[in-house]
Design a protein that fits this description.
This protein is an alpha/beta fold and about 290 residues long. Helices cover about 25% and strands about 25% of the residues. The strands form 2 sheets. It has a 6-stranded parallel beta sheet. Strands 3, 4, 5, 6, 7 and 8 form a 6-stranded antiparallel beta sheet that branches. The chain starts with a strand and ends with a helix.
């Protein structure tokens, strides 16, 4: 099961300064980490960007936040976008562990610091010193490349490279329609105040599908929700939703670029505006519940 979250490049459009913009992105990354999101994708919203903190800034700060602390200096160095990286809340991502007989131990990210002879490399993976590891035959690595290391013992150190995706939260840039069209997109949900209100009954219907197929949830930007970003009239969203059968998760395809459901996860909201980082917590919490 794969869980993906889509946020726009205009995510920090209302931030007064770089410090506030950085802090906001930190809470987006933290929400994604808390609810074990696999991919956090930034989709373009050029019309909503203010120019100060565009998609490049958003992508860089999110990728930095998702980088394990022990690798940040080596991977990123000094960059203007990261001037206020110190205000980012720690993600403290839970360690991924293996359960099968040949997959015991924990997975963590490392970075190749040196490529040596005879198929060996030195890798910094947050231990006291870089460690020397054999490169599996199916892998080809270069200096500076990030790799997955399985550590089965720290004293003495026992570890090996794994030819699997990097553990933890992945940050990518993607077109909205392309992200919704991925084979592992699962249930494709648009989070919007104009969508169907989330109820206990609706959640019960969704939980089984999400647990089986995974989900992709898209969010809008401050004062610029998904209908505005997509150029869709809010009334069209509501009409399409009302036209769907009670037991059907789909909406009319003319209302969106490929969503299965427009969902309001903060019904009867008490504030005029729900910030994107708040909407992530409010949405991912109930949708993470299982039957």
């Amino acid at each position: 099961m794969t869980v993906s979250v889509l946020v726009p490049s205009s995510l920090t459009r209302e931030a007064e300064d770089k410090r506030e913009a950085t802090r906001k992105l930190g809470y987006v990354a933290r929400a994604a980490t808390i609810f074990r999101v696999d991919r956090l994708l930034v989709y373009p919203d050029r019309d909503g960007e203010t120019g100060r903190f565009d998609g490049g800034f958003v992508n860089t700060v999110l990728r930095y936040a998702a980088t394990p602390p022990y690798l940040r200096n080596e991977v990123w160095g000094m960059r203007d976008e990261l001037e206020y990286a110190g205000v980012l809340p720690p993600l403290r991502a839970a360690t991924q562990t293996g359960s099968e007989s040949n997959g015991s131990g924990s997975l963590r990210q490392g970075i190749v610091t040196e490529v040596g002879p005879e198929g060996r490399v030195r890798v910094n993976c947050g231990l006291q010193h870089p460690i020397s590891l054999n490169v599996p035959p199916e892998m080809a690595v270069e200096e500076g490349e990030r790799v997955t290391v399985r550590i089965s013992s720290r004293r003495p150190v026992r570890a090996k490279l794994e030819a699997v995706p990097l553990p933890g939260l992945t940050i990518e840039q993607s077109d909205l329609r392309a992200a919704l069209g991925r084979e592992d997109a699962g249930v494709r949900i648009a989070a919007s105040r104009f969508g169907e209100e989330l109820t206990v009954g609706r959640l019960e219907t969704l939980a089984g599908r999400i647990e089986r197929d995974g989900m992709t949830v898209a969010f809008g930007a401050p004062e610029r929700g998904l209908p505005d970003i997509l150029g869709i009239e809010a009334s069209a969203v509501g009409a399409a939703q009302m036209a769907a059968d009670d037991g059907d998760d789909g909406v009319e395809p003319t209302a969106d670029p490929g969503f299965d459901l427009w969902l309001n996860t903060v019904p009867d909201q008490g504030s005029e505006v729900v910030r994107t980082e708040e909407a992530l917590f409010a949405t991912l919490a109930p949708l993470s519940l299982r039957e």
